Amino acid sequence: MTLLRIASRAVLTLHPTINLLNQQKANVARWVRPTLMEIRARKKKLEQQNGPQKETPRSNFIEWNYDAEIYAFGIRLKEKFNYALLQQAFVDRSYIVQEEMKQRSVGVENPSLNLSDNSALANKGEELITEFVISFLNLSLPKFPKDGIKAIYRHLISDEVLLKVSQSIGTKDLILSSSYPPMNDVYVATLKAIIGALFESSGEARAYEFIRDFICTQLNQVDVNEFWKIENPMQLLQEICKDKKLGDPEPRLISNLGQNTLLAVHYVGIYANKKQLGAGFGENIQIATEEAVKDSLRNFFQTNTNMKPFDFRMPVEKVSNLLKKPALAAASVDNI
Predict the structure, then answer these.
(1) Smallest Cα–Cα separation from 128: which of 219, 227, 205?
(2) What DSSP line would sit under 267-280, residue for residue?
């Protein structure tokens, strides 16, 4: 027994971390677990009686400091904002209307809040997003058709993507809106306004970098071909082959296995001018041919599965130089 005690003390002496872990476990009071269980049970009982509880805004807590939170927002993003512009970026028009109605309800005839909504900043941010995203896609996918660029662009500026970005950077508790949590369109407008405020505060380059780092990166590990639904792939392939003077594309059966079974596989290739343009598998010849045509188009567009990844470190100067070209001066979707 004495030897066992001596060995135990030696282990604790050689490994102080073991002793520390034991101390940490011992410092957890026995009342913590049953208390948390009781709180959870009472919350569940209230929800059963009165329905789901409304989410409480963070500003209702005593230690909330809005000015400090606005300042910390820019620091977290490592961006330099003009404080007044950044504060304006979080003010939705509905908040101003709500506060004016409150003042009128208590007898104020001409309510004044000294606040401006973020609509002007949001318009500027939307313009910057359009300019950069289109140019970024044109540089990253030089052989992708214009219709495909438009489809990817629409995906990146969709409310679903911008909502995700806005929530991920922590705008929820900073937005001044008539409703809490804010509506989806308010999240989107706030993100655009933040970009507009960054442009006014730190210049075009910083705004472009923000768009590249937070919006364009949503294309990471995404198949861009999925955004563009081609109505007649074979017709498009024929037009491309005609422009490149390759002749008409011709499907050929390369091999097939398991005919007349549930596991039948057909392997079809597309050939033009004695060269294979693409190949595809399918449970029948028609499906295999369709897949081969799509594979041929991806090879022409350089958007196949082994395509070069997007360069999310692309210098903004490279994009700015492209925007100076007359063909992209307006940077509108209809003009690309």
Answers:
(1) 205
(2) EEEEEETTEEEEEE
Quote the CA–CA distance of 101 and 96 in Å, as a whole number: 9
Which residues lie across from 281 on neighbouring strands?
267
Residue 278 contacts residue 299 (beta carbons within 8 Å): yes
**Using CA atoms, how far apart are residues 4 and 180, in angstroms rounded to an integer?**
62
Cβ neighbors of 208 (< 8 A, separation 6 or more) are 128, 132, 316, 319, 320
Quote the CA–CA distance of 57 and 182 in Å, as a whole number. 10
Could you write out the DSSP letters of every residue in 221-256?
T--GGGG---S-HHHHHHHHHHHTT----EEEEEEE
Amino acid at 136: F
User: Are the C-beta atoms of residues 332 and 126 closer than 8 Å to each other?
Assistant: no
**pLDDT digit string, tens, across residues 185-214:** 999 999 999 999 999 999 999 999 999 999
Tokens of 75: 């620091």
pTM of the model: 0.79
Cβ-count burial 134-165 (b if 16+ within 10 Å, e if not): bbbbbebbeebbeebbbbbbebbbeeebbbeb
Per-residue buried b or exposed e for 98-126, using 16+ beta carbons within 10 Å of the residue's own CB: eebeeeeeeeeeeeeeeeebbbebbebbb
Assign 3-state DSSP to the chain and report helix, strand, coil percentages, each to 5: 60, 10, 35
Element (H, E) at 281: strand 275-282
Q: What are phi and psi of 319, to 5 degrees?
A: -70, -40
**How many Å is the Cα radius of gyration of the chain?**
30
Express each pLDDT in 146-169 by its tens digit. 999 999 999 999 999 999 999 999
